[in-house]
Amino acid sequence: MPRLLDTSETTPPLPAVALPVEEAEIDLASTRAGSGVAELLGRANELAQLYDLIDAIGRRGGALVVRGEAGVGKSALLEAAAVRAGERNVTVASATGMPSEARFAFAGLRELLLPFLEARDRLPQPQRRALETAIGLADGNAPDPFLVGLAALGLLTEAEAKRPLLFLVDDAQWLDGPSSEVLGFVARRLQLEPVIMLFAVREGIWSALEESGLPEIHLDCLDAATSRALLELTAPELPAELKARVLDEAAGNPLAVIELPATVANLGGTAPADPLPLPTRLEQAFAARLAGLASETRRLLLLAALADGELPEPARDPGWASAVAAGVGTVDQGRFRFRHPLIQSAVAQAATPEERRQAHLALAQSFDDEPDRAVWHRAAAAAGPDEDVAKALDAAAERARLRSGRDVALAALERAAELSVDRGQRAMRLFRAGELAFELGRATDSSRLMNAALQLGLPPRERALASLHVEVLEPTWSGAATIRSFAAIAQELAEAGHDSQALQTLAAVSVRAHWEHLDQETRRDVAQIAEQVAAAPDDPARLATLALFDPVGQGAEIVRRVRQIAPHDVADPEGQFNVGQAASAVWADNLALPFLRAASTSYRADGRLMRLAQTLVFEAWADVRQGAARVAITAAAEGVHLSEETRQVRFVVAGQLAQAIAAVEMGADEAAEQLIDAAEATLLPLGANPLLALVALARGRQALAQERFAEAHAHLRRIFDPNDAAFQQFVGGWALADLADAAIHGDADREVVDNVLLEWDAVATATGAPHLVVQRRYAKAVLADEGDAEPHYEDAMSAGAAGWPSYAARAKLAYGAWLRRQHRMAESRAPLREAARSFDALGLLRFAERARRELRASGETPRRREREAWAQLTPQELQIAQLAAEGRSNREIGERLYLSHRTVGSHLYRLFPKLGVTTRAQLRDALGPTSPD
Question: What is the pTM of this model?
Answer without folding.
Answer: 0.82
